[in-house]
Amino acid sequence: MKTHFSYDDEIEQAQCGTWLGGFSSTSSDWAQVDCGACLKQKAKIIAIHNTEEAAIVAQMGDMADFMRNQPQEDDR
User: Fold this and answer.
1) Residue 76 resides in a domain
2) How do residues 25-65 score in pLDDT, each as one tens digit?
3) Does residue 14 contact residue 6 with C-beta atoms inside 8 Å?
4) Helices in the chain by DSSP H: which ranges?
5) Rg over CA atoms, the chain
6) Angle formed at CA 49 by CA 21 and CA 22, multiple of 5 degrees
7) 75 inside domain
């Protein structure tokens, strides 16, 4: 059984597109991944993850700015 790459253990489909069953294994450690399709797409998977992570951080920054600019109870 191949070990597929995944940041999440609760997925139904691996990053490479393989549907996972009860006996499938996933890992977020590239050293443990032996699925050829996952390894072939490693750079793409990492780039997608980095893009998603950057978007989340930007959104969190926007929310922090929004909250910082809200009137406080003392200001009312």
Assistant:
1) no
2) 999 999 999 999 999 999 999 999 999 999 999 999 999 99
3) yes
4) 36-40, 42-68
5) 19
6) 10
7) no
- Residues with Cβ within 8 Å of 14's Cβ and at least 6 positions away in sequence, in order, are 4, 5, 6, 20, 24, 26, 35, 38
Residue 12 lies in a domain: yes
State the pTM of this model.
Answer: 0.68
Query: How is residue 12 written in tokens?
Result: 């139904």
Examine residue 34 and state whether it is found in any structural domain, yes or no. Answer: yes
Task: Give residue 26's domain range.
Answer: 3-70
Residue whose structure tokens are 């930007």 = 58
The tokens of 3 are what? 């070990």
What is the count of structural domains for the chain? 1
Structure tokens at 74: 């003392």
Q: Would you give the end-to-end CA distance of the chain in angstroms?
A: 63
CA–CA dist 26, 15 (Å, integer) = 10
